[in-house]
Amino acid sequence: MTSLTAAQAQLFEGPNLGVLGTLRRDSTMHLTPVWVGWDGEAILVNTVVNRVKHKHLERDPRVSIVVTDAGDPTRYVSVTGVANLVLEGANEQFYEQASKYLRDEAALAAFAKESAASGDRRIIIRITPLGVM
To answer: To pair with 27 at 20 to 30 A between CA atoms, which of 35, 56, 81, 111?
Structure first.
């Protein structure tokens, strides 16, 4: 396991978008823009159960993720790691991320209503860093 520096962790804590790379069955990369978080030990990404990235990670937990500073695109961090899939607390963590990215109360309320109506089950992709650049 590799630790992130405070400056690197800050990129995951702020409202910066990440790009998550998972491996398809043929070993090519599948890239997805994602909301990101940091719990002090691992990078947190949230998704819907049975989405493509979830299925990829059930088969092969190796991931790459890069996050770029929204205010300074020359500042970024790239991490390779291993993902654990966690159902417990996934809905709560999803709404925490939503409130970080959707700062307008009306937008957050509309998003929460739409998400609840979808009936989707959420899952946390908890990424343990193994390499940082």
So the answer is: 35
Closest of 19, 13, 107 to residue 65, by C-alpha? 19
At 56-109, the pLDDT tens digits run 999 999 999 999 999 999 999 999 999 999 999 998 898 888 889 887 777 777
State the Cα–Cα distance between residues 103 and 108, nearest whole angstrom.
7
What pTM does this model have?
A: 0.91
Q: Is 57 left (phi over 0), alpha (psi -120 to 50) or beta?
A: alpha
Evaluate whether 115 touches 94 at the Cβ level (below 8 Å): yes
* Residue that has been written with the tokens 């300074």 in this structure: 72
CA count, 13 A, side-chain hemisphere, 127 = 30
Q: How far lies 11's CA from each of 15, 24, 60, 83, 122, in Å? A: 8, 27, 26, 19, 23
